């Protein structure tokens, strides 16, 4: 077994899509970044890389590389999960929390879980995504940004 932890923050800005967990959520602002700035998928990707000490998302996809401008974070996640499965590991489960003051995320959590489970080819019961606010405190509370954390457990597959 290997455990991994990921953390990410992105700024909220006007004129950007709010994409979270691969789902385009209608909101007046969106997350700002070199890629599509999907803070949740970035935290999960970093957790997967971290579990096998494979570095971090910034090393694999430098934000100075024009190739990753507006990159779809679903593709980045799948790429990193392939590194994991190539090393003979599979996701046992993941647990993530998004901290956002707005929009209300509860209604979209089931869809987000389904999308992530699809990307990682696991059952939705292996994917937990939770949401909380920051009680109006700090940068999240002022709606300047959104953060996410994720923990993953990987299990090495026996070769029969
Ligand atoms: Mg990020």
Question: How would you describe the overall organization of this protein?
Answer:
With 160 residues, this protein is α+β, with helices and mostly antiparallel strands. Helices cover 29% and strands 32% of the residues. It contains 5 helices and 7 strands, in the order ββββαααβαβαβ. The strands form 2 sheets. The protein has a 5-stranded mixed β-sheet. A hairpin with a 2-residue loop joins strand 2 and strand 3 (23-25). The protein is globular. The site of magnesium ion has 5 residues, from strand 1 and helix 1.
Topology (SSEs and partners):
Layout: E1 2-14, E2 18-20, E3 23-25, E4 29-32, H1 39-51, H2 57-60, H3 73-86, E5 89-99, H4 109-120, E6 127-132, H5 138-141, E7 145-156
Parallel strand pairs: 5-6
Antiparallel strand pairs: 1-4, 1-7, 2-3, 5-7
Magnesium ion binds next to strand 1 and helix 1.
What are its keywords?
two-stranded antiparallel sheet, single chain, five-stranded mixed β-sheet, 160 residues, 5 helices
Brief digest:
With 160 residues, the protein is α+β, with helices and mostly antiparallel strands.
Share in β-strands: 25-35%
> What low-confidence regions span 5 or more consecutive residues with pLDDT below 50?
none
Bound molecules: magnesium ion
Instruction: Give the SSE string.
Output: EEEEHHHEHEHE
SS content category:
alpha+beta
**What's the overall average pLDDT, rounded?**
96
Q: What's the count of strands?
A: 7
**Percentage of residues assigned to helices:** 25-40%
Q: Could you give the order of strands across the largest sheet? A: 4-1-7-5-6
Number of helices: 5
- Which value, in Å, is the CA radius of gyration? 15 Å
Shape: globular
Largest sheet properties: 5 strands, mixed
Distance between the termini: 17 Å
């Amino acid at each position: 077994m290997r455990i991994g932890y990921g953390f990410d923050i992105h700024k909220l800005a006007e004129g950007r899509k709010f994409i979270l967990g691969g789902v385009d959520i209608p909101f007046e602002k969106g997350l700002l970044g070199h890629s599509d700035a999907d803070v949740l998928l970035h935290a999960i990707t970093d957790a997967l890389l971290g579990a096998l000490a494979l570095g971090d998302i910034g090393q694999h996809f430098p934000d100075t590389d024009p190739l990753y401008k507006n990159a779809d974070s679903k593709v980045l996640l799948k790429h990193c999960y392939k590194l994991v499965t190539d090393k003979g590991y599979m996701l046992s489960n993941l647990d993530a929390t998004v901290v956002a003051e707005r929009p209300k995320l509860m209604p979209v959590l089931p869809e987000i879980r389904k999308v992530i489970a699809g990307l990682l080819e696991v059952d939705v019961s292996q994917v937990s995504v939770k949401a909380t606010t920051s009680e109006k405190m700090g940068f999240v509370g002022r709606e300047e940004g959104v953060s996410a954390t994720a923990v993953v457990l990987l299990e090495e597959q026996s070769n029969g």
